[in-house]
Amino acid sequence: MPSSKFINKLRPKKKKDKDKHRGSMTSLAETQTQTPSEVETRKEYIEASILSKVNLDALNEKDDSNTFKSNIENYIGTVKVPVGAVQVQVNGSHANGKYTVPLATTETSLVGTCNRGCQLINMCGGVESVVIKKQVQSAPIFHFESIRLAVKFNEWLGLPATFESVKTNAIAVVEEAVLVKLEHSVHGNCVYSRWYFDTGEAVGQNISTYATKEAMESILKEAPVQPSSWDLDVGLARNRQAATSLMIDGRGVYVTGEVVCPKEKVEEILHVSAEKLASFSRESRTWQLISHTAGSTYQSARVIAAILVASGLDAAAVVESHVGISDMKLTKNGDLRVIVTLPSLMIGTTGGGTKLPSQQACLQIIDLPEEKSREAFAEVVLAAVLGGEIGMCAAMISHHFVNKKKRTESETPSTSLPNGNSVIEEDKAGEAAAEKLNGDATPSEQVNGDSAPGEVKEETKKENKKDQSN
Amino acid sequence: MPSSKFINKLRPKKKKDKDKHRGSMTSLAETQTQTPSEVETRKEYIEASILSKVNLDALNEKDDSNTFKSNIENYIGTVKVPVGAVQVQVNGSHANGKYTVPLATTETSLVGTCNRGCQLINMCGGVESVVIKKQVQSAPIFHFESIRLAVKFNEWLGLPATFESVKTNAIAVVEEAVLVKLEHSVHGNCVYSRWYFDTGEAVGQNISTYATKEAMESILKEAPVQPSSWDLDVGLARNRQAATSLMIDGRGVYVTGEVVCPKEKVEEILHVSAEKLASFSRESRTWQLISHTAGSTYQSARVIAAILVASGLDAAAVVESHVGISDMKLTKNGDLRVIVTLPSLMIGTTGGGTKLPSQQACLQIIDLPEEKSREAFAEVVLAAVLGGEIGMCAAMISHHFVNKKKRTESETPSTSLPNGNSVIEEDKAGEAAAEKLNGDATPSEQVNGDSAPGEVKEETKKENKKDQSN
Amino acid sequence: MPSSKFINKLRPKKKKDKDKHRGSMTSLAETQTQTPSEVETRKEYIEASILSKVNLDALNEKDDSNTFKSNIENYIGTVKVPVGAVQVQVNGSHANGKYTVPLATTETSLVGTCNRGCQLINMCGGVESVVIKKQVQSAPIFHFESIRLAVKFNEWLGLPATFESVKTNAIAVVEEAVLVKLEHSVHGNCVYSRWYFDTGEAVGQNISTYATKEAMESILKEAPVQPSSWDLDVGLARNRQAATSLMIDGRGVYVTGEVVCPKEKVEEILHVSAEKLASFSRESRTWQLISHTAGSTYQSARVIAAILVASGLDAAAVVESHVGISDMKLTKNGDLRVIVTLPSLMIGTTGGGTKLPSQQACLQIIDLPEEKSREAFAEVVLAAVLGGEIGMCAAMISHHFVNKKKRTESETPSTSLPNGNSVIEEDKAGEAAAEKLNGDATPSEQVNGDSAPGEVKEETKKENKKDQSN
Amino acid sequence: MPSSKFINKLRPKKKKDKDKHRGSMTSLAETQTQTPSEVETRKEYIEASILSKVNLDALNEKDDSNTFKSNIENYIGTVKVPVGAVQVQVNGSHANGKYTVPLATTETSLVGTCNRGCQLINMCGGVESVVIKKQVQSAPIFHFESIRLAVKFNEWLGLPATFESVKTNAIAVVEEAVLVKLEHSVHGNCVYSRWYFDTGEAVGQNISTYATKEAMESILKEAPVQPSSWDLDVGLARNRQAATSLMIDGRGVYVTGEVVCPKEKVEEILHVSAEKLASFSRESRTWQLISHTAGSTYQSARVIAAILVASGLDAAAVVESHVGISDMKLTKNGDLRVIVTLPSLMIGTTGGGTKLPSQQACLQIIDLPEEKSREAFAEVVLAAVLGGEIGMCAAMISHHFVNKKKRTESETPSTSLPNGNSVIEEDKAGEAAAEKLNGDATPSEQVNGDSAPGEVKEETKKENKKDQSN
Question: Chain B closest CA to C55's CA: distance in Å?
Fold first, then answer.
């Protein structure tokens, strides 16, 4: 595990320096589009990049079981989840520069499709993003003998003095638990409430729950009426719940961002027209509406889950975090505007498994600023998700037209995958680059939604039947 | 990686043998409730159990980067996710016996709360479960010049001959892609459709997408009218979408199960009354309704995500899979009936990362039957989720009453966590057992929702402020 | 049309007087349970009651087409919707006493089932209710050239000075448009906002839309950046949209209420046990969850639609208004607690068709206080809905057990209707009473969900086949 | 009330005749666009039209209270709801010709905005529409002692013989109750089911509920295990529930339709560009998504509620019926394609209040074919809704640009209303036409969402403050 001193050295103290540093980098994504003959240049890049400076040993060494003792019970070992990386330019309110994003997944092609989208983003100047708010709720429910008592209690909850009292008590228990809003209402003989906390760099579910409980117990005696009982609720707080209401009041970090891609660049990188992407995006809404998906995205869940696993956060938090909106539409002059909004991104840069060696290494690779690291992290995640959405939609669209052409023109339909691996050939260079970059990995030949290896080879299709899956 | 020959030896060929084998086991959960003085018995159990027979080396050895080459692009290493295990008795339509379930998570206390619930389940005879159906959808959308053409095409899609033709073509492409249902309708000039496949042991998203595309291209020429274009859609198929409609037609495996727990046993194990649990469950529905969660469960997302990561499946699939219903209600004589239904469990026993060494080891630990392994897997997952729901609710309820008592009676409120670590003391024996079992891990002192280590110690609370998180 | 002077005389100026007045009434519902021999007493009651004092001529006279000229275009005549009445005791924050509620519907048995529930309510002391808030949203959307400009605008919207400026400008345009809250956020290059107004006695959708537009145009020049365009949105405001988010932030009047019914009274009036009702309510949640209904009620839509039509409000507003929660659960001693919460009741006592003669007569029948008439109206509607829920659930439950018994015991299964008209016999007295009360109507022989007349008579069943419907 | 003989005479027996008849008509909408000097021509049209042949006396005469005796309990009189009419061309699978649609509402401008949209539709050749299916569900729930018994029962429900037996028994009870599909599943110890019936011309909720109950009681004895109890559920059937799942399996009539409007005509009639409408529609989806509306329409609820009230159907059925999709998008050459899909339109041509005099007169005005009258009705409703969506969106968009211009150019901004009454002037001719048509009504000066009369006059704005509402 790299010492924090080492990490600090890595981190450019002044934003200017950092930008300069980043400015000198040729991105991972960009190098992938270069021809194999440019390998030397690439190598130099790799040596100059963040990746080469972070101590990645933790990602490759044997794990010491003692490491995990406070993160798990009934420990029996570890699973090794492979990590791939993409690079994406972020011009955010807190993140600025080209960031390397580690994605831990066993799903072939996820990194590939995401990388494809990030390539386009980077060629178009990066994702402009902003964090609008960050907050996490806890939700105590109070039960009374009658609605009359509930109403009295509800009125008391609404007093400014009550808010201040809860706020003071909460901070006294956990310094990071800063109460910012209190919503409360009555349903018959119950008072239900949502307490919104800003919990700094931490995801904060536990902080806010704990602070709420302690603060509540401290001040309950001041209430004009006492509840017959009270509970902490997960449904109202939407703790690991993919609630449609997350779009209304958010949870965790609310982050939004966009990139405008000149139509020529869209064609060049994705081999799909901006118009077709905008149309596909528009139509998708109808089909998502029929299914009533929570939010309206394409593979935000895949990208976010991969980042959560890589960085030691709760993989289950993807259920809240993936709820958001992906929009692709044309600007007046026909360029492609891609917007992603994630109103409930449950991420943090501390707590959970973030301090475990390999997970910490992943976080270090991202190289977030020390100040407002959580906001910056959110903007980086958003940019990666945005890359994933672009890559996914392009793959969804291009597949069968390319296939059709190939079927008539050539003998290589076998390289065509349902979800768009017609893009493979163009990635060959990138694959070579990645090989060089990583030294020890051969990226998949497939760039596909969630394919099993080998599914695509026409000549092996029959034999593979038994093997195919997922 | 254990050779498949070795694995085959492990697997009792005859169900009878297996049951006998299992019958002789004292479960992991049960041993946890035993006193430390019973350690010797426990050790013998461990030696006789499945755990000791599976080659767990993969869970503890260094990873060879070549291993991952077809599962990831831009590989840079692996993250190590610690795995804890719980044991749960399943009396299912396909799974029968006591199963060890590996949970890969960095969330302290997840394994603990789940284990607590499984203890109760095991004491009450296990989870009765059944798989109702398994299917996965792909969803092609066809665009036409006018609604008139769309209607014609829609009628053609509804012909029995069309169904048969698609079915035959799909199987010809991928043997496992067995078309079982075809739904289709018209929205203006578009025809949208959902093709339901039974994909055997695989999750099957890719199989069904691929088969659909190939079959469609084969038979499209037979259609009376040709679409101007057609797409494969993720929203209508709900691929990685937490759609509320999943409750209606399901996706993946539809599995349901229940356990009836005598009220005395509930009190004994959970220190909460059956009545209080039933009441808590009832009230929760109201708060979930206000938030409009997709489904109505407590921590199904946590348990399922941990199993997906452990077994090499797509962690992002938790967004569909966690959508379900948890019910706790009293029987006529006041015992606790706990029901969990998961209509869209996206799991399989092949494909994705299931063949990677450490992930395969996890799957082997579960020791699923060779026949209908996916159905059996679903029943085991359901039982673990059911255990997690019981453990979570008990923790949610017990916390503050227990805390209150402790605050007045003792000096140890510090061990009380918001989400219920009043259960810790009772787990001490279990922890000791787990230490013995695993040899190299000290399970957390906390049994909590998603706490950071150290959050609970009163004496360290102030110091920890900076550290707390998540 | 009764002169307003007349109406004013009708309205007791002092609450005390009014209560006294009401206190002396024997309710409509109560009289229905009396035996036919008590008709004389009833007649006296009717003469003393509000009903006899209100000029109901408008409900029975020919309409003058000029009356409607500002409420409709392309006028061709009127449809006559029959109005039935129920009486319900309300002990609310604004409504106090026994209220007569007019229900305009052509659905046989709606008034009957609602009346049945109100009978129970009245026997149990009435509905305790409270209005928590009232507000209506308008939702302007602002489009910009880039997210950067959107963010700047969003920040400006968040300034206290902006809020004050909008508030002042809105009131200047329409006095009733009192801005109480402003929510706004960013999605890519768009700023979306929800402006919450308190609009006094009016439903206020139009007031708030108009005030928002005018205020926005006045202050837009003060903004640091100008939107390229802006719209007023119906989806975000949820104007005539049955959105699940209505449970979160409400719309119109948020009103909640409960009644606790001794278990003996439940049995006596409904012929169903309190326990069975609580269990039915509990189970219903599961089935509503599977369908993902917006809210969780039984026939709130029917009762509310009937009141909207009767009182000249927009019948379409039932889509927002019916979204709420109905809860039936046992108290500790086994009595039945029934709770209804309606967070988005779109009603008012002025505007729309409220001034049309027959509609105004209906409003006058309710006899709302002059002060806070809208809040009082909301509490009366809630009480009627609560009565409807009780009546509906009792009918749903009782039907088949009663039927079964009847089939074996007697020759009168014919009076049993699917949705519970086994209750008919007990209503005979009530029907007679109603006949007397109304002078000119024979209430239906059926008390059923939405039956067609004649559906129930066993002897006419076959002949009726062709006629049955709805 | 017109005798049915009279009505039959009205109805052209041969479709050809009817079309010819219709062909000779100048539509109501079209006449509105003509100049006042063309009044004579219009008068002739009116005399030739359906309107003049239907006996509309019921719409204008005093009601006889005996009329309503089987439709309501506790009758106290009627409310008169004014009816306006629009005309719309339908080229459907069952409806063909120009139909007059009666809208009963007190909401100023609803008929106006709807008429505006219908004008455009008629100029563009009418709405092409199709009924995809019609069905209504009843939903019995069966409770068992254990999941094992539930599974057995569920298997029995799945047998073809069971389906046939239920089908036969259901038809024996009510001839119209034709069972077409049976869905059933298990949740713990419960079996829940949805029985899909085709109920001919009737809405059929009651028919299907009654048939289900009777059929179930007949065949329950054949089941291998008996439920401990069973209920009929409204949540699973979604009886008067605005469920998001209605988009998945529908309820009532599933009808879809579209119109393609040349861009020049859009501009001419709506004074808004096709492009702007398509863009507004696209953006609306995002805001509806944030609110999670059930379906995605604009004012479908208003138009449908007005038709339900006019035709004697349950106004509350608007909660299911309004759930649908409205789409406006550009064709390749920039024309406007408008699509509306209503998957759960709960309408019928018999039952409920359809036989009441004024309601029957309204149904007669529509002049539906005798065969498949319900399907034809659904297509007419869809066309009117489509007109309402066009009119509403045009009003939403045009308002503030028009206003801005007016404010600087003239002294008549006062006539501009937030929701678009800048269109008023163009309607003047139409108003005059309507006056002539109806003889006795002055249509509103406003064409607005839900405005109160007088709200717009600048000079009276201040004075009106107290009066404004809704």
Answer: 43
